[in-house]
Amino acid sequence: VEKAELAAGAEEAVTAIGEAAVVLQNGGIVAFPTETVYGLGADARDTGAVERIFQAKGRPSDNPLIVHIAEMEQLEQIVLPYGEVAKRLMLRFWPGPLTIVLPAREGAVSPRVTAGLDTVAVRMPDHVTALRLIAVSGCPIAAPSANRSGRPSPTRAAHVEEDLAGRIDGLVDSGPTGVGLESTVVEITEDGEAVRILRPGGIALEALREVVPVTPDSTVESVEQAAADKSGSPAGQEASAPRSPGMKYAHYAPQGAMQLVIGEPAAVRARIQDEVDAAQRRGEKTGVLTYTEHAPYYRADVVLASGSLTRLESAAQGLYAALREFDTHGVQAIWAEACPQEGIGHALMNRLSKAAGHRFIRV
Ligand code: TXA
Ligand code: MG
């Protein structure tokens, strides 16, 4: 399968999924849409196929993959019996952008998927193409985001092609993804009573809290703290050993150097404009990452709005495309406006911080 277009019509869609399923069954790797971002999938039980995902992405081998399932029977084959908290999460949020780390059933998926851990991260995506692909192939699909390691995740098929053309066996194109940021990853706490957020994402902290207790040491609380600790300083090491291996790697980074500006909105705008003016005097090509409401205030070489401040979901949807667009224009220095830390804003701030290499300016 070179490339299968899904948008064209239902009949073609069925063909595309059927072809992609055959590729998966034969040890190939295929990019496909989910409701969060495009994933790069392989049969999770096939070590050779999973190995090819790491090669195609240039991904460090100690970073485990999420296994995507389409029905609960598949889950029981992959994980050991789990408790009430996990059940409540599945009932409320699956299919959907929530990944749950559970004890793995030995030998059920390739050790390359779990990177040797005794746990496995599982989710049921809320996307008809992804669900059909899993069902038709009959495979639990191991899939990281379908980008080269370190690049912003792909929210359109064109982003996958940009990064992975010639390195994968197929691409199912269903247009832009809905959420635009990756799934929330949680683990169950040692006492089995609560969850710890390992990666904020498509399911908001507030929504999780309606269903289960969330431990306060979760990563979502740490962005503001990190900003306070590191204001004005260059990127440092991330604090203590991360519980989710993926969180320690540089991520989502545009090629230009980015800084995240945090504070009262008017002061943020003034500071960003000052920084841009100074950089332009140094002869640098400048970029500002803002929101539709504030975009008219800036003078820079490239001003991009990820979405609207009054609907942060739209900013989540547009973030990765905007980060990629700065690269297209060859922007060398970028200043990004922080957003309120509520709802999807937690995940947005997490990705903005990472894209900025944890370089903050607090005004
Ligand atoms: O929305 C998403 O989650 C997308 C789509 C394709 O489903 N996938 C995705 O995968 O973002 P990836 O590989 O880019 O991120 C997986 C995250 C990493 O931070 C990884 O360290 C963590 O999940 N993870 C995987 N298995 C784990 C485990 N057993 N324990 C703790 N963290 C785990
Ligand atoms: Mg990723």
From TrEMBL:
Family matches, as InterPro entries: DHBP_synth_RibB-like_a/b_dom, Sua5-like_dom, Sua5/YwlC_C, Sua5_C, T(6)A37_SUA5, TC-AMP_synthase_SUA5
Keyword Nucleotidyltransferase: yes
Entry EC number(s): 2.7.7.87
EC class (word): transferase
Location within or outside the cell: Cytoplasm
Binding site for L-threonine: T36, H68, R123, A143, S183
Alphabetical list of Gene3D superfamilies matching this protein: DHBP synthase, Threonylcarbamoyl-AMP synthase, C-terminal domain
Domain YrdC-like: 14-203
BP-aspect Gene Ontology terms: regulation of translational fidelity; tRNA processing
GO MF, one annotated term: L-threonylcarbamoyladenylate synthase
Keyword terms, alphabetized: ATP-binding, Cytoplasm, Nucleotide-binding, Nucleotidyltransferase, Transferase, tRNA processing
Catalytic reaction annotation: L-threonine + hydrogencarbonate + ATP = L-threonylcarbamoyladenylate + diphosphate + H2O
Keyword rRNA-binding: no
Positions contributing to ATP binding: R59, N63, T119, S145, S153, R199, Y252
Region (Disordered): 219-247
Physiological role: Required for the formation of a threonylcarbamoyl group on adenosine at position 37 (t(6)A37) in tRNAs that read codons beginning with adenine.
Annotated PANTHER family: SUA5, THREONYLCARBAMOYL-AMP SYNTHASE
Family named by the database record: Belongs to the SUA5 family.
Protein name: Threonylcarbamoyl-AMP synthase
Organism: Paenibacillus abyssi
